[in-house]
Write a structure and sequence with these properties.
Layout lengths: L1 H8 L3 H4 L14 E3 L7 E3 L4 H4 L15 H6 L7 E6 L3 E8 L10 H5 L2 E4 L6 E5 L8 E8 L6 E6 L6 E8 L5 E2 L9 E6 L1 H4 L10 H6 L5 E6 L8 H7 L5 E7 L7 H18 L5 E4 L11 H23 L5 E4 L22 H19 L6
Parallel strand pairs: 11-12, 11-13, 13-14, 14-15
Antiparallel strand pairs: 1-9, 2-3, 3-8, 3-10, 4-7, 4-9, 5-6, 5-8
Helix pairs in contact: 8-9, 9-10
């Protein structure tokens, strides 16, 4: 009787709500294409032409990168596939490097692709890959319309898992053409922590770097390394190799550890990058408020001390004549009202938190990059 009661009380939303069920794709009868080939535009992987893998650092870097950072570089945060097609249907076929395994981040954010329609400045979310999160491979329909129509498509790669292979499925006879070009060929590079990487957005498009990419028509490169954005000089040297940088954002305070480490790493990271790129704007971004700070004064004081180091470092470079280095106080990135409601665990933003971060940073980046502010 007890076992029967237990089974009766168990809630299975996928059986009760058709909107919660997984799609059964089966034989879709589609033509499968690789985004590695033209006319698809693949962005967010600076060494792709060299290594032919979806990875945020080179397979064999010229400097000794810590193994943890190398492993995390396999996560495809910030990667995007852009194209236009008149196919009435579109599907993706994905092979992951690993399964979803995080307690505080949905599998859709960890391992899913999401899809946006439209061009930069006017992109709108349409769908997320709905798949069995216990699997390493999935094949899902991303949209299905009754008629052909030319649509601009952007697919965002998973934030916290690697992608071994991805294929795009279209209707037989459908056309695929190149997306609208970026405003220029320069790149916005954002280096940082798990927050930069996208933890813990519910889907890839809600990482703050991806939100910014929908507002500024340039390639964004996400170099966030969960728990390991520590200002390593070797990483500074590798990032200096990325061609045509437009802006470098340093958002790694949350992983900097003790104050002495920040005092040591920040000036050195900037010095190394400046050797390669003397005039590229650099934005030093202090971290968001953590929810526990109002109850633990030591945490608040540490953030204030860290911010002081960052401000003094930037000011020191400016006194030496570097007019292209800037500081932004991240205290209000989550807003001043209810900022503590914008994270999943007091540290990692929810979608609301990431949206607030992007809203605050959009005009800052637009100004540094020379784009007029949107009304």
């Amino acid at each position: 009787m007890a076992e029967q009661t237990k089974q009766t009380n168990q809630v299975d939303a996928q059986k009760l709500d058709p909107n919660m069920t997984l799609e059964q794709t089966g034989n879709l009868g589609m033509i499968w294409m690789s985004p590695k080939e033209k006319p698809f535009r693949l962005s967010g992987f600076p060494w792709f032409e060299q290594d032919q893998v979806y990875r945020r650092l080179p397979v064999q870097p010229n400097y000794p990168i810590r193994p943890e950072v190398q492993q995390l570089s396999k996560s495809t945060a910030g990667g995007q596939i852009a194209f236009r097609t008149d196919s009435a249907r579109l599907a993706i076929r994905v092979k992951l490097s690993g399964k979803a395994n995080m307690y505080h981040m949905p599998s859709t954010g960890q391992c899913g692709f999401d899809l946006y329609f439209g061009e930069t400045g006017d992109q709108h979310f349409y769908s997320i890959s709905r798949y069995d999160h216990t699997k390493l491979e999935y094949e899902v329909m991303m949209y299905e319309f009754p008629q052909k129509e030319l649509r601009s498509v952007t697919l965002n790669f998973p934030l916290y898992q690697g992608v071994e292979e991805v294929e795009i499925g279209i209707d037989p006879g459908a056309e695929v053409i190149a997306p609208a070009p970026y405003a220029n060929n320069r790149k916005v590079i954002i280096y940082g922590t798990s927050i930069t990487q996208g933890g813990c957005a519910t889907r890839p498009g809600m990482a703050y770097t991806n939100i910014l990419s929908r507002r500024i028509p340039m390639e964004f490169i996400n170099e966030g390394f969960s728990g390991n954005g520590r200002g390593d000089p070797e990483v500074a040297r590798v990032l200096s190799e990325i061609s045509d940088p437009a802006l470098l954002v340093l958002d790694y305070e949350a992983n900097a550890g003790e104050l002495d480490l920040m005092r040591k790493t920040l000036p050195e990271f900037i010095r190394i990058y400046r050797e390669a790129h003397p005039d590229v704007p650099i934005l030093v971004l202090s971290k968001i408020q953590f929810g526990r700070e109002r109850f633990e004064p030591a945490l608040l004081q540490k953030r204030m001390d860290m911010m002081q180091i960052e401000m003094e470092t930037v000011e020191s470079y400016r006194r030496q004549g570097d007019a292209n280095i800037h500081f932004f106080d991240g205290t209000a990135l989550l807003g001043t009202d209810s900022y503590y409601e914008c994270t999943v665990d007091g540290v990692h933003p929810t979608d609301l938190g990431f949206l607030r971060m992007a809203d605050t940073l959009t005009p800052v980046l637009q100004e540094l990059l020379g784009f007029s502010r949107q009304p």
